[in-house]
Amino acid sequence: MKKIDKNKELKFQTRAIHIGNGVDKETRAIKRPITMGNSYQLPEDPSVLNWSGFGDNIYTRNGGSNQRYLEERLASLENGEDTVCFGSGVGALSGLFFSLLESGDHVIFSNITYIAVYRLLNKLFNSKFNVETTIVDTSNIENIKHEIKENTKLIHIETPGNPTTAISDIAKISALAHENDILVSVDNTLASPFNQRPIDLGADFSVESLTKYINGHGDSMGGAVTGEKKYLDLIRTQAQVNLGATISPFNAWLIMRGSVTIPLRMRQHNENALKIAKYLESLEIVSFVSYPGLESHPDHEIAKKQMSPGFGGVLAFGLKANHNKHNEFVSHLTIISSAVSLGHDESLIVFIGGDDERQHLYPKKFKNGFFRFSVGLEDADDLIEDIQEALIKTDLI
Length: 397
Ligand SMILES: *Cc1c(COP(=O)(O)O)cnc(C)c1O
Fold this sequence. Notes:
The protein is α/β, with parallel strands linked by helices. The chain has 2 domains: 12-259, Aspartate Aminotransferase, domain 2; 262-393, Aspartate Aminotransferase, domain 1 (Alpha-Beta Complex), CATH 3.90.1150.10. The chain is 36% helix and 15% strand. The chain has a 7-stranded mixed sheet with strand order 1-7-6-5-4-2-3, sandwiched between helices. Strand 2 (106-110), helix 4 (115-129) and strand 3 (132-136) form a beta-alpha-beta unit. Helix 1 packs antiparallel against helix 2 and helix 2 (65-77) runs parallel beside helix 9 (249-259). It starts with 11 loop residues before the first helix and ends with a helix.
């Protein structure tokens, strides 16, 4: 029988296919099945079980088989000791914060993060749980140094940051944090583990919204935290079993299936996004393009150091046009969909307007509104033509 040698150094692409898969014992199918049952048969003497534990299959909220297979794969792709999956990326982030932080702790986090991080830490955790928060531009490490305090427990960064693609130096921030006994979590969603592995760079946790590139097909939601087992056991007990943001077996299975092609998809996302970023940069009507793969990105050198082989599929750009023209431009697009989310097979565009509640935190050029563009897997030339025709129909070129 085929058996993957887990001690053998397999390449990323091979692990994306084989780790977490296996032969189903009952049918001998070479793909593991979806197990939708929410309860598992108890041992003869159930008193041996820990009801809030997760080691044995008891109840799907404590962890089910499809979740475990996916966790095994993700831990391997992130080069971490263990992974815990959640029902969404925000479930993973809130589970991490809820489990690690105690009342009186201080957190430093990036000015550019997924909006739920801002709301969770800055609006909920500080008012409900008395967690202190400081928001800084983490692309400059000096800003972090100035804010470290006795009670700083965690530095949370997102790189590239959603939606502006700001870059923070994972290795330097992790070294600084560890000198001060502070933990570091990195939201790795925009890069995906194919392009960037925060744990290899020294971070304690890599957080992913599986909804995005790892699933990659825009048809399910999930989240994951990868890190050392000692912390993940705590997160599993406190956040998964007791808060209950568990991933459904079906979604875990879909994400497992999507993740098989992540190396192939990411290569294409990287290539398409770079080509389109360069095209947009060549247009007079475009006020700026922000993409870590462009030399014009202020932190292109840091991005090159920590991201390889590419820079992901998300870019931001501005148009020298008014509000109505922004909407009109989007209405003329025929291939690119106007929708939130990112990392899908298809291209998605969203206008982030000047009414974003975090507008004051954005660098100047983003303040009047801009587009976040998740470049999909279509032929890049078709996408360029779609943009060009929409700009012509809007009288912008
Ligand atoms: C989408 C996203 C999340 C949240 O993930 P959900 O699966 O939508 O809950 C977190 N971080 C980043 C960077 C994201 O893009």
